Amino acid sequence: MGFSKAIRLLNILCFTMLGVVCIVSQAAAQAPGYADIREPLGGEAIDGVVTIEGSASHPSFVSYDLSFSHSDNPTGTWFLIGDPVHTPVTNGRLGLWDTTGITDGFYTLRLRVHLSNNIVLESFVEGLRIRNSTAIETATPQPDRVTATPTIALPTRTPRPTPLPLPGGSNPSTVLRTFTGGIIAGVVVLLSLGIYLFIRRRSQERWAVLRMRQMLRKANRKKRR
User: Fold this and answer.
1) How far apart are the first and last CA of the chain?
2) How many helices (H) and strands (E) does the chain have?
3) DSSP E strand boundaries for the chain
4) Per residue in 38-58, pLDDT tens?
5) pTM
6) Range of 110's domain?
7) Do 126 and 220 share a domain, yes or no?
8) Is 200 part of a structural domain of the chain?
9) End residue of a domain, out of 123, 153, 183
10) β-strand 45-46 against 120-130: which pairing, if any?
11) At what angle do helices 172-224 and 3-29 cross, to 10 degrees?
12) Per-residue DSSP letters for 64-104?
């Protein structure tokens, strides 16, 4: 294997490993329980000041924020609910949402958890019905995403799954550190192999030059005799 081929192979392996690290980091960050809204529930009718409960935490936690938008939101416009919070919350109160100044209608609630590696985790609650000025329906209408007209459905409260622990009791950050350490060790081995191949090739070239010089010297001696 030539030195240039070894370098190309090393570059390909390095980029592949970096891609795998990014995928693993994203998957570990998206583990359940880090960004989760438990109250209010999707399709629920709300009014007045609403308490938002859930979890916003992570080993790389920086801050979280709450916002809302109209259910029909083609422009992607979101309105913040209070200021960003820099203290993690686990199964507790995330914030208070004063809906008294909002027009009755269908809305979506969003939780974003910001991490130190610039990854943002998101959780949504859709179909919330703000009813400050109008009567609350006996059934919970859900907006039809195709025709944009609400359909009637009874409200249900389904229990949320409990996040499963990782095998061996390890957490995502430990798994990521172990995986990253293995990749670094692999890169070191590949670099060592590249350096070895380079030194070997240079030694072979040097040895060939010395042998050629020795043969020329012997030929010159024979001519002199």
Assistant:
1) 44
2) 2, 10
3) 35-39, 45-46, 49-56, 61-70, 79-80, 89-98, 105-115, 120-130, 140-143, 150-153
4) 999 999 999 999 999 999 999
5) 0.51
6) 33-153
7) no
8) yes
9) 153
10) parallel
11) 180
12) EEEEEEESS-TT---EE-SS-B-S-EEEEEEEEEE-TTS-S
- Count up the domains in the chain and report the number: 2
Residue from 129, 132, 68 nearest 100 by CA: 132
Neighbours of 91 (CB within 10 A): 11
Q: How far is CA 2 from CA 187, 189, 193, 195, in A?
A: 19, 17, 12, 12
- Any idea what the CATH number is for the domain that residue 43 is in? 2.60.40.10
Nearest to 153 by CA among 142, 162, 143, 144: 142
Higher confidence at residue 155 or residue 76?
76
At position 215, the amino acid (one-letter code) is M
Between the alpha carbon of residue 35 and those of residues 50, 122, 188, 222, the distances in Å are 19, 6, 37, 87
DSSP secondary structure code for residue 118 in this structure? S
The amino acid at residue 40 is P
The pLDDT tens digits of the residues spanning 44-97 come to 999 999 999 999 999 999 999 999 999 998 899 999 999 999 999 999 999 999
Looking at per-residue confidence, does 43 or 168 come out higher?
Answer: 43
Domain boundary among 98, 118, 153: 153
What distance in Å separates the CA atoms of residue 196 and residue 202, rounded to the nearest whole number?
10
What are 222's two structure tokens? Answer: 């024979």
Distance CA 182, CA 46 (A): 51
Place of tokens 């030194």: 199
Give the pLDDT confidence score for residue 198 in this predicted structure.
80
